[in-house]
From TrEMBL:
The protein's name: Secreted protein
Disordered: annotated segments: 28-70
Signal peptide segment: 1-19
Biased composition (Polar residues): 36-48
UniProt KW Signal keyword: yes
Domain of life: Bacteria
Keyword terms of this UniProt record: Signal
Biased composition (Basic and acidic residues): 50-60
Length: 174
C-alpha cells in the first residue's frame, strides 16, 4: 500500500469516527444542552437580554416516552420553565447570586449551572423543584437513549456582581 492510499484510508476512518460522534452530539444540542458551564439570562455586557413576563405553566407531560423527539421536547419545556423562574440576575452583593446545578451528564455530574439572583428569581422553591425534575428526567433520558458524553467534570464557578448583575468569574483549572 502506498503512502497516499494509507493517508486516504486514515482520512476516511477519521470522518467515519467523527460522524458517529456527531450523532450523539446532535441529540444533546436538541435538548438545548450547550457546552457552556453557566447559563445566565444576561448579555456579555451585563444587560438583561431576556425578561420573561409570561406566566409559568406547569409541564403537562413530564414523563419520557422513548421517542427522542418527544422526550427532547419535554426536556426543552422544563428548561423554558426554569428560565422563566430565573427573572433578572440583578443583585447588590455577590451573596445574593446563586448557582443551581441542573441535568446530569451520562458519566455523572451536572450538565450546567443556572446563575440567578435571590432578588430577581420569581419563585426559588419552584425553580429548585423544576431543576430536580429536569435532573431526574435528564438521567432517565441518558439511560433510555444510551447517551454518551465527554465525561468532563464541570467545576462550579465563583460569582460576582458587575454593574448590578450576577456574573460568573472564570475559574482557572491547572
Amino acid at each position: 500500500m502506498t503512502r497516499a492510499h494509507l493517508s486516504a484510508l486514515l482520512s476516511a476512518l477519521c470522518i467515519t469516527v467523527l460522524a458517529a460522534c456527531s450523532d450523539r452530539t446532535d441529540t444533546a444540542q436538541e435538548r438545548d444542552i450547550s457546552d457552556e458551564q453557566v447559563t445566565q439570562e444576561t448579555s456579555p455586557s451585563g444587560e438583561n437580554s431576556r425578561v420573561y413576563d409570561e406566566p409559568v405553566r406547569e409541564t403537562e407531560n413530564t414523563s419520557l416516552t422513548g421517542d427522542m423527539e418527544q422526550d427532547s421536547a419535554v426536556m426543552q419545556q422544563l428548561l423554558r420553565q426554569m428560565r422563566m423562574q430565573l427573572g433578572t440576575a440583578s443583585a447588590d452583593h455577590p451573596e445574593q447570586c446563586k448557582l443551581l446545578p441542573i441535568g446530569e451528564k451520562p458519566c455523572g455530574g451536572p450538565e450546567r449551572f443556572l446563575l440567578y439572583s435571590e432578588q430577581g428569581v420569581r419563585d426559588e422553591a419552584q425553580l429548585i423543584k423544576l431543576a430536580e425534575q429536569y435532573t431526574d428526567l435528564s438521567r432517565e433520558f441518558n439511560r433510555i437513549h444510551q447517551m454518551v458524553s465527554d465525561c468532563q467534570v464541570l467545576v462550579q464557578p465563583a460569582v460576582t456582581v458587575r454593574d448590578g448583575v450576577c456574573m460568573p468569574i472564570e475559574t482557572a483549572i491547572y
